[in-house]
Amino acid sequence: MKIKNIYTKAILMACVSSFASCSQEDIEPYSGVPAAIYIQEVKQTDIYGNPISYQQGSAELSFSGVPAAYTYDYVSFKVRLAGEVADYDRAYTIKVDPEKTDAIENVDYDLSENTFSIRAGANSDTVNVKVLRNDRLLQNTLTVSFKLEPNENFTLAINDYKNSSSWNVNGEICDATTYYVQFSEKYNEPNFWTRYPGYFGEFSAKKFAILNGLMGWTPYDWNYAGFSGFKVQVGKLPFAADTLRRHLQQKADEGDPVCDENGEYMQLDDKYAVDYSKYL
Questions:
Q1: Which one, out of 76, 107, 188, 225, has a CA that is 20 to 30 A from the CA of 40?
Q2: How far, in Å, CA of 109 to CA of 221, rounded?
Q3: How does pLDDT run across 115-149, given as a tens digit for each residue?
Q4: Sign of the C-alpha dihedral, residues 116, 131, 43, 39?
Q5: Three-state SS for 20?
Q6: pLDDT digits 0-9 by tens, 192-203
Q7: Which of 149, 167, 184 marks a domain boundary?
Q8: DSSP code of 265?
């Protein structure tokens, strides 16, 4: 027993000696970037507002059926903080990825309303993508892709996360450093347009959008055309065609003729033809 006690004391003394040999000057405090940022959009919450699931790194916007008076809309996503809240603004770095983007800045989208900083006292920032409505969207689905980059204020310590907050759910893994937005305004030719020729001429998405804007119609109305209670009816087609003709003729007379998607002047059926002779 005595030998055992001596052995134990020797071990304790060795440990004390080891700790003592490490002076306070040898222990260097962490001096790196103290916070990280990541992208995460909440998709669903419980009744208490706690996140249940998250969006998987993207958002979509369609102007299809939206009145022509609305020339832009917004898509937003959150850049969140992992770390301490500061009492001063901290800029973060987020860039458009040119390899994954076909939308053109200030033509198809605008980012000028953003500060790209985590404000004092805040733990997140909202990136607002102003999507600009134009004719390119009638034939194309455009994409703008974003990616976070580290800087002097933030690291990218969180690369991904599970799209469910439940530990016992096998959710998909989401990228926490990238986010992309897709937007379009595509239309398909309605059956009613084809069934009753002699009014609007050859279908185009641009012509369809202008007509709907003039008449206050939507693609939904065309889906149920001819049914009682819906706006698009056979008896209204002559008036609609003449309304579109008069609009196009006025634009032509004012020196601003409307061209269709194929580059030619927008035209209707012969009975409602627009006179473009001054441009031919």
A1: 107
A2: 29
A3: 999 999 999 999 999 999 999 999 999 999 999 99
A4: negative
A5: helix
A6: 999 999 999 999
A7: 184
A8: B
